[in-house]
Structures are given as C-alpha cells and as structure tokens.
Amino acid sequence: MSAVIARHAPNWAACLLRSSVYAAAAALLTGPVLRHFGDWYIGWPGDPQQFMWYLGWVWHALLTGQNPFYTQLINAPAGQNLMWNTSILAESALFGWLMTWLPGAALYNLLWLINWMATCLLGDALLRHLGVRPWLAAAGGLFFGGMPYFTAQSLYHLHLWATSVPLALALVLLRALRHLPRRPAACGILIGGLAAFQFYTSIEIAATFALTLAIGALFLILTLRSRAQQAFRLPLRTVATALLTAIVLAAPGIWTLLHGSARPQGKLLPSEAYVNDLLNFVLPTPVYALHNAWTTNLSLQYTGNFWENNGYLGIPGLLWLVFAAARLWRIAEARAAAYTFAAIAVLSMGPNLHIAGRVTHVPLPWLLLEHVPFIDSALPSRLMLYGDGIAIGLGFRALEEQLRRSSRPAAARALAGATLLCVGAAWWPVTPYFHSPTPAAARALTQPGPVLDAVAGRPTYFLSTDTPDVMQALADGGYRVPMVNPYGYTGNPPPRRTALAQMTSVLNPNVPESDIRAAAARALPILGAERLVYYPVQDGQRLPAAAERALTALLGPPVAEADGVQVWQVPNPLPHP
C-alpha cells in the first residue's frame, strides 16, 4: 500500500524546483516592475489601465447595488454594455476584492505573474500527460509561459494574455478524453465552469477555442477513421453536466449580450487589418529580443499593429515544427494536430493573403467564417494562441520520441538541448519586458484635493491623448467620477457619436481657437458633461495653448488644478461661443 501511495504522490521537491525556475524567469522579465509594484505596470499605456478599471468593477457594482454587466460610469450618462466589451468579469469577480488594499497597477501586475506561473505549470502538466519525461516537460512549461502570442499580447490585452484559462480547459478535456473520469459529474462541472470562466474573460477566445476544437475534432475523425468513436468516449453524464454548468453560469452574460441595453450594432473590427502577414511567421517584431532595425521597419509595414501580429515562430520554431511533424507522422493523433496547426495558421492570415504589408487579394479560408456569429468579430491573427500551443505540444512530444528511440542517449539529449536553446532564443522577449509608470496626474483623482472634490459624482469629459489612461486613476479613486468618454463599443446614437468626434478636435494643435470653442459649445450639451478635465498622460505634458484659451473663453477659468490636471465647470446653458 505504501508503495502505491509513494508512486502516486507528487514529488514536492521537483514541483518546488520547477516553480522556482518559472518564478525566476518571470522576475528576469519584470524586474523593474517588481521594484515599483504598485506604481509601474507591465505593458504600454492605454489598454492596461482600462483593465485596471475593469478589475475592480464587479465588486464595486455588487457592493453598491449596481448591475455588474452594465455601467453608467463609462460613456456617462448613456452607459455601456460590458458584455460587448473586454470587461474581464471573471477575473474581476475572482480578484477584484483585492482592489480594497492594492492599487490597480499592483493587481494588474499580480495577475500577470499568476497567469505566467499557472501557464508554465499547466503546460508542464499537459506535456507530462502526453508522455514527455519530467525534465523535458518542465522545460516545456517555460515555452508555454513565453509563447510568442503571449509575448505580443502582454503589451496591452489582459483578456488575451490570460492564457492559463484556455490551457486549463484544454488539459481537463484532454485528460477526460484519454482517461474516463472516475467522477463524471464532477468532471463535467469543472469543464463547464472553466468554459464559463473563459466566456466571461473573453467571448472572442471562447468562440475561437470552440472553433479550434471543431477543426481538431474533424481532422481527428479523418485520421482515425474507424477508431474515431473511441477518441470521443466521454460519459454522457460528463457531457450533460458540462453543458448545464456552462449554460447556467453564462446565462446572465448571454442575455445581456443579446438583449441588454446599449448594444453596439454591426461588425466591431475589420478582419482585413488584424491578420498575420506571411513574413510575420518568420521575422520577429519589436517585442522579441532577436529583432533588429530591419525587421522592425518591415514589421511596421504590416496592417494592424505589431502586438496583434501573432504569427511569429521564427526559422528555428518552424524547423522544429517540421521536424516534429515528420518524427510523429506515423501517429494518427499527431497528424491531426499537424493538420489543425496548418488550418489555424492559414485562418490566422485573414480573408486575403498579406505579404510585407501588401494585400494581395489572394482569397483565404477566413472568408468562409466572416458571417458566423461571434467568429465574425474575432481578429484572425489571435488564432495563433492555439497554433503556438499545438506547435509546442508537437515539438516536445517529438523530442521525447527522439530520446526514447535514440541508440545514443547522450547525443540525443545534447541535440534536444540545442534545439530548445535555439527556439527559446528566437522566442525570448525583450528583457526587461516593456513597462510604464503611473502618471503623476493620477494623484489628482485618487487623493483628496480640489480636483477630486470638483469632479466627484459629476459626469466629466476627459481631454486626454489616450482616453483609457485616466481609467486607472478613476478606479484607484473609488469609482467616484462618471466618465462621459466611451471606451470600447457602445450603442450611441448618431448625435452623440458626432459630439464625441467633435471633442477630439480640441487637442488638435492645427485647429483654430475659434473652431475649438465652437466644437466644444456644440458637443458638451449633447454629451451631458458637467465638468471638463484635461488629463496629461505623461508628466510635464500640457494642454495646447490655443485649446486652453478657447476653453477658458467658453467656460471661464479652471475651477481646480493639481499635478497638471485642469478642471472646468460646464455651465448650463452654455454661453454662445
């Protein structure tokens, strides 16, 4: 009996060693942020601060009797449907209570570190489940943690760099398919719960995860043929429980998505822009350490932006993938995985082939998905989340196969190590990873003082070169200020959309003072703003002189100033410009 227990007991020393290596890698990447944990944050200004606002929202809404799926604190007073935006309700519900003690930047950084560690450990577990020996699987955990997709998306998008959630769901599904669960209902609850968690983290990733599963299942059926039925032998109780759990948990969000107020209309983003250029699979963008001036200039020609160019595997990674497919080709499941990777890679290139930023108008299969609900608003380039995962799984399983069958173990281990070093060097991020400080202006909205007193509870339009930057300060200040600006997707009527567009001219240095005054006079009453705030996103940044003169002529002198922030009261009615 003791021998059985010892055989199945976890090796805590090995777990601790693996975790220490993963933590050391995270510390190497984020060293400056760790030293300023509550003030600096991982990534560049913009979307990270949006996610800081969302992280505390669910608990704030519940404690103040508000609907967590909808807010009037963004796009005030009209409001914003959060199910149509990247509101990370799952992470907010799980971790948002920590905003009572932690500033938004600290919680954002903490989630990045938790996700890194969880992804590394889950990747290690998945590879060991595929039969990869412990030391090799431990190395594979690092590759899952630092997959190229994650490196690029870490610049901005929490809902996309939360890779531990789809990886956990993939691992649970794989285990259930390969070994019948001893507790079918409990397994179903776990699968359904993870699916719902992913739904509330990112509807896009939930939809593309289902798409990838469908593609993989199709290729598995085609490769296994008569044995296909054995590969899908989940107990009916597991399937039913998983579906019931997912539907029950996701039902409020689905209802809000389909029938809630303030829903946007039409396609959210153009699928032709955010695609993987053919050259992106080979050449690194500026987020990888291996980039140089030539690759950077070339990557800046791609459509979209370089943090959405998610196809990069590099020459070492592509050669590794070819080797893996050839080494494992006799295994039907590996062939299905290779076919799935190829399909995902082609789909990630969007509706037309792009080469060096030029749209060739060579049609690609994504055209067939452009009218599929939920998939139609997904960005094709992001599909490489699954491409990277499949490539890592195939690559490490092939190295394991090579080690098992080699007649020269030492040489095989050396070759495996050299392979991992080459691929790892090609994938390694810029170190330390990109990070940003919280602007000094945030103090004016988070600490008691004249600025916060002037705007608390008042619908406020923020003049800023990057709207989401202010959301960090609004969250840290306790959600006391309704922001008239929208950020994300709204159901605004045309007059409000026009007024918002007119306000963007205020910060344009080429617009005459009289035009600024006229635009603000037309727009502010339509928007329902009671206060107008200039918020500098960089220390020392100033409102253009023409804009300051125009606003003072229209609204009077600022009623409060601190840390570069200026507050104007909007009279009702406004004087004629």
Automatic annotation (TrEMBL):
Membrane-spanning residues: 12-31, 134-152, 158-177, 184-200, 206-224, 236-258, 311-329, 336-359, 379-399, 411-430
Keyword Glycosyltransferase on entry: no
Keywords assigned by UniProt, alphabetized: Membrane, Transmembrane, Transmembrane helix
Glycoprotein is among the record's keywords: no
Domain DUF6311, first and last residues per copy: 33-370
The protein's name: DUF6311 domain-containing protein
Source organism of the structure: Alicyclobacillus macrosporangiidus
